[in-house]
């Protein structure tokens, strides 16, 4: 399975255009939260209409998997906690999203919503506990906030990650967690787009302005993940220990540059 992974597109239509243009080259596109930009001059309701259209177009070209981020909260649940109902509702249209678990090839995906209080946090905990009991070969999570005390949540000055997620990772050891949220982590000194916590790989592609967005290409057959950004190209092999500093690539892997795949162009 070849996956394109981004997060924090924040209503950048140029970045959505780029993801849409790349979508059919991948078996799955993963957008790990923060579709909207709450500081935008564009009303958030208008943003949801535009983004919904983009997601429909992407989903028409490949399997789209997405979760909410803290910018995506549009309503409150019965207990008064903020939730991203418009993201959760994608599941009804066949786009796996918040509170959903599903199997693709040999991978069980658990899609966690942005949780803003104890009720939503309890729902996430229950979802993970239930999925832990399911038979699976590989287990991938979407969770917008990266784990605390990880280079993927390092701002350059302090950690800004999720303590509960770190505990859940320690408890369940998923194979991969796709995050975002801390935009600068991949670009900050001592930060990174990738971490390994025991056997779990954690990814946060980061956020920059303009297209293409920083992105990760994951190949589950070749067991390799490549991060492409304006700051360079780095790669890790998932079947080997994480090395730091993560090696910079000067040439792209063959599986990434084959004619029917993305990568036969400048990564910048
Ligand atoms: Fe964000």
Automatic annotation (TrEMBL):
InterPro entries in UniProt: Calcineurin-like_PHP, Metallo-depent_PP-like
Residues covered by the Calcineurin-like phosphoesterase domain: 1-184
Coiled-coil region list: none
Protein name: Phosphodiesterase
Organism: Kaistia dalseonensis
């Amino acid at each position: 399975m070849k996956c394109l992974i981004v997060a924090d597109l924040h209503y950048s239509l140029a970045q959505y255009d780029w993801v849409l243009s790349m979508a059919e080259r991948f078996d799955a596109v993963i957008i790990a939260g923060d579709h909207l930009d709450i500081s935008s001059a564009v009303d958030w309701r208008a943003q949801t209409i535009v983004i919904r259209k983009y997601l429909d177009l992407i989903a028409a070209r490949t399997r789209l998997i997405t979760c909410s981020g803290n910018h995506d909260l549009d309503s409150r649940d019965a207990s008064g906690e903020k939730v991203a109902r418009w993201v959760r509702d994608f599941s009804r249209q066949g786009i796996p999203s918040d509170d959903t678990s599903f199997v693709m090839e040999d991978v069980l995906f658990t899609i966690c919503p942005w949780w803003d209080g104890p009720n939503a946090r309890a729902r996430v905990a229950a979802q993970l506990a239930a999925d832990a009991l399911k038979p699976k070969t590989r287990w991938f999570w979407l969770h917008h906030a990266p784990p605390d005390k990880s280079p993927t949540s390092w701002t350059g000055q302090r950690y800004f990650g999720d303590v509960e997620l770190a505990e859940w990772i320690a408890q369940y050891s998923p194979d991969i967690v796709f995050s975002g949220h801390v935009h600068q982590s991949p670009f900050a000194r001592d930060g990174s787009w990738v971490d390994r916590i025991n056997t779990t790989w954690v990814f946060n592609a980061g956020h920059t302005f303009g297209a293409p967005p920083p992105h990760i290409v994951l190949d589950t057959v070749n067991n390799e993940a490549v991060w492409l950004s304006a700051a360079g190209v780095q790669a890790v092999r998932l079947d080997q220990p994480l090395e730091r500093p993560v090696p910079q690539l000067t040439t792209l892997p063959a599986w990434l540059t084959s004619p029917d795949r993305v990568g036969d162009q400048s990564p910048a």
